[in-house]
Request: fold
Amino acid sequence: MSRSLRDEREIQRWDDVADVLVVGLGAAGAAAALEAARTGADTLVIERAGGGGGTSAMSGGVLYLGGGTALQRACGFDDSAEAMFGYLMASCGEGPDEAKLGVYCEGSVDHYEWLVAQGVPFKPVFHHGVSGEPPNDDGLVWSGSERAHPFRDIAAPAPRGHVPAMEAQAGPLLMRRLVAAVEGSAARVAPNHRCVALVRAPDGAVVGAVAEHFGAARALRARRGVVLTTGGFIRDDAMLAAHAPHLRRCKFRVGAEGDDGSGIRLGIAAGAATIHMDAASISLPATQPWGLKRGILVDGAGQRFINEDAYYGRLGEHALLHRGGRAWLVVDDAVFEKPDYPRRVAAVGESPAELERDLGLPPGSLESTLALYNRAATRGEDPAFHKAREYVTPLERPPFGAFDCTSEGSLYAAFTLGGLHTDVEGRVLDPAGAAIPGLFAAGRSTSGLSVGGYSSGLSLGDGTFFGRRAGRTAART
Amino acid sequence: MSRSLRDEREIQRWDDVADVLVVGLGAAGAAAALEAARTGADTLVIERAGGGGGTSAMSGGVLYLGGGTALQRACGFDDSAEAMFGYLMASCGEGPDEAKLGVYCEGSVDHYEWLVAQGVPFKPVFHHGVSGEPPNDDGLVWSGSERAHPFRDIAAPAPRGHVPAMEAQAGPLLMRRLVAAVEGSAARVAPNHRCVALVRAPDGAVVGAVAEHFGAARALRARRGVVLTTGGFIRDDAMLAAHAPHLRRCKFRVGAEGDDGSGIRLGIAAGAATIHMDAASISLPATQPWGLKRGILVDGAGQRFINEDAYYGRLGEHALLHRGGRAWLVVDDAVFEKPDYPRRVAAVGESPAELERDLGLPPGSLESTLALYNRAATRGEDPAFHKAREYVTPLERPPFGAFDCTSEGSLYAAFTLGGLHTDVEGRVLDPAGAAIPGLFAAGRSTSGLSVGGYSSGLSLGDGTFFGRRAGRTAART
Reply:
């Protein structure tokens, strides 16, 4: 038997015993621990680092919530669970988990209240003009492609990026509050414990884990269940090569060191199924400030490929997966402005032909693309990709410029979305779809809401939401 | 414990005992059984159908072989293992298994001899003018993109599609001969046995299997090992939804009923790792006869996206994965000819503008694409996609026509390429990369040579090649 799976009969002595053992103290683990502890279950959280936080603490802190949360209402926005569900079903990649999306949208208003009750503060101010993460402590922001084609015609748009009140990067605040809540609960926290194996009873149920603590192995019994909340695998080259080799071309891998897929591997060793292991969030933040959406993104053939007003999570996925990471944002002098992210200007020229030559694009390609774009743009139209009218303007005033949006020269920020197959209650499933007794999971060690076409906040969203459910389910087992 | 994994101690009585148990009698299983039996190991092959053959018997029978086989030499072609390796490394998708490709290319000449020795006949005639499967019993054919950009500049091209001597579809002949060879060997064949579980010893080694035989469970002990050769999962909707949801849009799923992923699931339940589960062969046979390569393939934005002389396995992958299955092959009157496959003519028009309107493409898009293409084509050039000069000719003689190459209206033929993670000796690996004692696999239940950009013959090629290795390794254990 693999060393990452131990037979209960091998265990000579349990070093600690709890009802529920949570592995990993990021956002999902904190949520699981809080809910498990509140049911009265003796809850032990182990964390491989010296303290809680994980990747959630280095994130932007955005939570994708909606359906008419108190924050949305305070900012003057209407929303409904139906509209939110419609958008997510259409935008979350091919074949997202409809059941998970359903309970998530139905439960989103309550989940916001729960976060507030844990001490996570949100300032009731809507921030206009950027996507994803506001530069200040404003609380609500657009964090997806809700207003872009084709989604604007599918579901009523609403901003759903809920951002804790901390300037520029709210992940640290979110996790300070959630970890403080865990520490204030009845749950026990054991840092510097790296889980190296699950322990299985002869009947197949997971009954504990073995953790390494400063070099020593500690056997931890879990009377009711183990909850894996160990994060994704963007930091593990072998797993990337096996499941999502294209991600190796992304310069910025969004993940703490712990995002090495350890929990996913532990689950597999215990017979768990994994799903959507190729799925990823791939962001190309090329259109901040929004005025840059008036430029056009072209690929290696000098052709457009997407409506440039789509969210940057969508831009990055299309550019990397469907255009081989060959892309440039072309602007004219009227549209040019300094982008938020330092990005290389790949070429400047007095004419499209000059630009095209400097970029090494096929002769005539960019000229032809711009001519076609400009012809409709003079009427404010974009019949090819349906960019919103406010961003459609002819690009004709020299000089022309091209920002480098290639995977070599630009920032593609990626993390993995595939992982353990779980049901809506957080139970880990085997390949036949049966729950593995005693094994639960949430967060990026599982496949959650999004299997592509990422909107920001879905990972902290599903991690905390389904983390709570996994914790409750384990505690009630 | 999952019912698809049994503890050895549960088994009251073994109904049969062998040294090596092979699960599935397709090409990989036949190869495994032949080699295991020849070492002297008592070999039992179980097959869920009433007879051997599996998907291999409904295939075109092409084997991708090279490096200078007797057949290549008899047809007057030079080839080398280096050239073959160079082509496959460049064409087999992102991050193929270099070690597997290496031993495969080195061993390809010998493997051809082995196939001949099993009674598989090849007629030493090269067939020019079609890709993949010759319409007669000729033995050698182009079955990949070797002569197309960018591969022609990476490795010296050679035809490597080795086709058993049977008209039009050689899979049945290949499997008749291989199954006959198995029946003539010391291996025992037990049809109508569906494997429902692997049996594991307390130390983690796989020591047998449970098979269902006309409703009764039979426990089969394998002293040295179990070899899973059960095929892919193109016929299992749940697995497609979990791993390769886009394939559900392909009209033609290339696989016998047994391609439901059963062996992959059995492996997972025993702790095996799976890799590249999203990978697939997706064929769009839109350019047969080859004269149709002079047309241009355009997507839903009316833009070209690939050199049309690429092999149809590459065309289909690009059209489905990167263009959403929206594609049309546009020809003019000079280039028009009746295609081999019945394909719907989506539109005919006196001008590109008319065609574009009928197809619902953005106004001006096809006109612009054709103008740009024709400008360079008058010089015999294709600077955008580098189609070979012999297929580059301006498309300007009305009427113009468009063949339907959409996933709704055309034939996309797909099968899965992902599966169990094995090493070059056929050992099944766990997520930590360690071999699971007693468990071996080959063929489409494993991830083999290709993880994309398919060339025909790679599956029968790696199935038989690594099937032999898996059989030998198991027998020697």
Q: What stands out?
A: The two ends of chain B are 27 Å apart (CA to CA). Chain B has two domains: 1-281+415-477, 285-404. Residues 1-281+415-477 of chain B form a domain with the FAD/NAD(P)-binding domain fold (CATH 3.50.50.60). Chain B touches chain A through 59 residues (CB under 8 Å).
